[in-house]
Amino acid sequence: MTEGDARGIGRLLAIMARLRDPQSGCPWDVRQNFATIAPYTIEEAYEVADAIDRGDMHDLRDELGDLLLQVVFHARMAEEAGSFDFGDVVAAISDKMERRHPHVFAGASVEDAEAQTREWEQHKRREREAKQGAGDSSVLAGIARGMPEWQRAVKLCKRAATVGFDWPEPEPVIAKLHEEIEEVRAEFAAVAAAPDDPAARGRLEDEIGDILFVCANLARHAKVDAGAALRRANRKFERRFRAMERLAAADGVSLASLPLEAQDGYWDRAKSEES
Which pTM does this prediction carry? Predict the structure, then answer.
């Protein structure tokens, strides 16, 4: 870190301390706590990912600043509570990075990136065991419940795979997906037959959850980031739907006034435009 970097961090820490001052600070910042700030932290992380997806380095710089502010905000509240401060956060992650990279900082050797990934997981496992002591000894222990559920599904599958509980290739996962789709069909029929039965709706929710879980596992087998894949699908849908609206407007009609069959025609035109 250069002297200028250190001054910049010091300035940011001073700004946050000023904002949190009970007498002269910002009323909104003063009344926040860890729980109220956590959603903003998650939102800023997604905005960083969005800037990266768009390849917008100007936005990425700004979004990384917003994410850094979240770290500073949490650290400031912890300092006020007497728990830890920003320096402790920096020291903790620095210690962790050195500890988990002995091939870089301690003279150990590693064959390649895949071997390093396995070593990384072993380091994490040992750290969890040391932290938990006689507590939760499950191989699934320590997977945070606050992360997006698709991400948690991937982590659950990945952790289970460390003890061999995993399909060896994608084909059985795809077969399982087909199986789950058929089970969803059956539960849709059950709900249609008894629309006021909460148990039927609960079973339908379970089966849809199973499909999503299997899809997350399939993405893991494909070495595809499930979140990135879904973001691409969302962008594709938005791009094509906006094209549908544009094409319909050029024809002097509103999509809302058209039956589904006609709307599908505009969808096909939007797709053909892309190709």
Answer: 0.66
